[in-house]
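Let us work through a complete example step by step.
Step 1: write down the sequence.
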Amino acid sequence: MNLRLNTSWENQLKGEFDKPYFKNIMQFVEQEYEHHTCYPNTTDIFAAFDTCSFENVKVVIIGQDPYHGPDQANGLCFSVKDGIKHPPSLINIFKEIEKDLSIKYPESGNLERWAAQGVLLLNATLTVRAHEPGSHQKQGWEVFTDTVISKLSENREQIIFMLWGGYAKKKAKLIDSKKHYLMTSGHPSPLSANRGYWFGNKHFSSCNKILEDLGNKIIAW
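Step 2: predict the structure and record it as C-alpha cells.
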C-alpha cells in the first residue's frame, strides 16, 4: 500500500513505518480492502496528513473511526465528501458553530476547508469495514495515531486539542498540558448532545480567542 504522507509528517513518523506493528496494519488493511468493502478509499486513508502539514497544525480534533456508510468517509474525522448528507454528529457540530459564532449552517460537510487552515482532523483508527463500526480497531492503528499525538505534543507548542467524548479525553495523557491547550466536552453524537454534554461548549469561539491572543490567524469555521 502506498504511503501518501506529507513530507513534514514523513520526517516525524518515518521511524514507525519499519516497526512490526505498522507492517501488520498495512498487511491487515490490504487484505481487508481486497476481500471486503472498506472506507475511506485507499487514496484517502492518510488524507488528514496530506491536507494539514506537521508545521501547520494549530488545532487537533480527534475522532474514533471513519464513517462506515457508502461515499461518506474522506479521511478526515467528522468530515464527509461534498454533496453527501451530513451525519448526526456533524449536524450537531455545525449547529454549535452556528450558535457559537453566528455563522450560517454550511451546505457542504467536507471539512478540508478546516484542514487547509491548520486543523488536523485525526481519527484514532484510519480505516473501517463497510457497515461495521469499530471493525478495524485494535489492529495497531491506535498505536500509530497515539504516536502522532505524542509527536505533536513533544515537538510543537501551543496547539489546541479538542477532546470530545470519553474516547478522545483518554488521549489527554499523551499531551503536555503545560505546552498546549486542552479543551474537553461531551461528544457531538445525538446521545451525548441531547443530554446536554455538547451544545453550549463554545469550543470554536474559545479556540479562536486563544489563536488571536497568540497572534495567530483564527480559523474560519
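Step 3: interpret the result. The mean pLDDT is 95.
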